[in-house]
Amino acid sequence: MTTKFPTNARASARTRALVRGAGWTTAAHWMVYTLEKLYLASTGTLGMVGSSVAPSAYEQVPDPGAAQLGNAAMGLLAVLVALAAITPRARAVPRPALLCAVAVLTLSTAALTLLVATQAIWLHVAISTIGLAAAVTLTTASVRRLPGTTHGPPI
Question: Where are its TM segments located (predicted)?
């Protein structure tokens, strides 16, 4: 699939900046998630900052700190995928593998957004919604090989 790119260098540079901004925003969203999970791991609590968890949840999770560290590791992986999608050095990663990873990243962001929407913590909802918009933009740009993506044309 080929995409027609604007021949105007200014438009191409603007597209590149928007795509890279979406990648950095997606990475920042998941870094906030990672830092929150690291904080919760250090306190040994479940859930999210600002929300309460039923005491029965602690009966089901033998080590809340380890569970939150696992969540933080997944968040860090999402950060790395988002950055790989906009980094020219990641061209060594096969395009289909990177597209699958970016698609999973976007689906994970959507699931997280739905999860926090049920908790009604509006700061979390706002941050997750911004992260979701950025992830969808990054995925669309990666599929279309727009300037600014790893497998897009160089400017």
Answer: 38-57, 69-86, 98-115, 121-141
Overall number of domains in the chain: 1
The C-alpha atoms of residue 144 and residue 121 are separated, in whole angstroms, by: 35
* Cα separations in angstroms, 40 against 35, 63, 67, 103, 136: 9, 12, 10, 27, 28
E strand or H helix at 106, and its extent?
helix 95-119
- Find the domain containing 82 and state its range: 9-144
Q: Look at residue 28 and tell me if it is in a domain.
A: yes
Q: How far is Cα 56 from Cα 23, in angstroms, rounded to an integer?
A: 38
DSSP 25: H
Rounded to the nearest 5 degrees, what angle is found at the Cα of 78, between the Cα atoms of 77 and 83? 100
**pTM score, whole prediction:** 0.87
Give domain status of residue 121, yes or no: yes
**pLDDT at residue 68, rounded to an integer:** 95
